[in-house]
Amino acid sequence: VKLAVHSYGPGAARDAVRAGADSIEHAVDLDDATLTEMAKKGIFYVPTVDHNRYYADNATFFGYDDTAVKNLRAYIERNLQTVRRAHKAGVPIAMGSDAVFTMFGENTRELEWFVKAGMTPVEALATATRNGARLLGKENDLGTVVPGRYADLVAVEGDPLTDIRVVIDKVRWVMKSGSVVVDRTQ
Ligand SMILES: [Zn+2]
């Protein structure tokens, strides 16, 4: 059984890592010893930076006041710093959205934050593909383009290796399990 731990602070995240969790979601300000242990044991960090951007941008819808919005923006900065440190420490990172249900369609914005935090575009893409599959224990079915795996493919206009934004606003074609489900190439 895979164990994912939702934690916003460093203390609970540290305890979860010591207790053998498979992934830590959200947490900021992780201490160096915890990052080192995550890298050593292959425990994933799922930063979910963008969901707080989404809450702040839609503050009226969620009923957040100015103070709450300020706190959300401040949290994003700490989240970004923690991604930067985790990435440098060699912690495996997977892309997650926190499943804010009205946010679907904006999830890949997370990858732009990862590039801001120091990943190359190809490293950012791996968080949403190969790494996500590994975290789920589904690396033999998902996450890489290899014969025998699910043909889940996305075609974008432009080169995501030089401009990560094309996976956010230039998706033109989607194949799911071998069937084309989106075609905007015409
Ligand atoms: Zn959560």
Task: Quickly list its features.
binds zinc ion, globular, alpha/beta, three-stranded antiparallel sheet, 9 helices
Please describe what this structure looks like.
There is one protein chain. The chain has 186 residues and is of the alpha/beta class. The chain contains nine helices and six strands. It has helices spanning 10-18, 32-41, 49-57, 59-62, 66-88, 109-116, 121-128, 130-136, 166-169; strands at residues 4-7, 23-26, 44-46, 153-156, 171-176, 179-183. The protein has a three-stranded parallel sheet with strand order 1-2-3, with helices on one face. A three-stranded antiparallel sheet has the order 4-5-6. Helix 1 (10-18) links the parallel strand 1 and strand 2 (23-26).
Strand order of the largest sheet: 1-2-3
Radius of gyration: 17 Å
Q: Which molecules are bound in this entry?
A: zinc ion
Strand content: 5-15%
Give the structural class.
alpha/beta
Determine the oligomeric state from the structure. Answer: single chain
Largest β sheet strand count, sense and barrel closure: 3 strands, parallel
Topology pattern, helix = H, strand = E: EHEHEHHHHHHEHEE
Instruction: Please give the share of residues in helix.
Output: 40-55%
Distance between termini? Answer: 44 Å
Structure annotation, total helices: 9
Low-confidence stretches: none
The number of distinct β-strands equals 6
Q: Shape from CA axes? A: globular
Can you give the mean pLDDT?
96
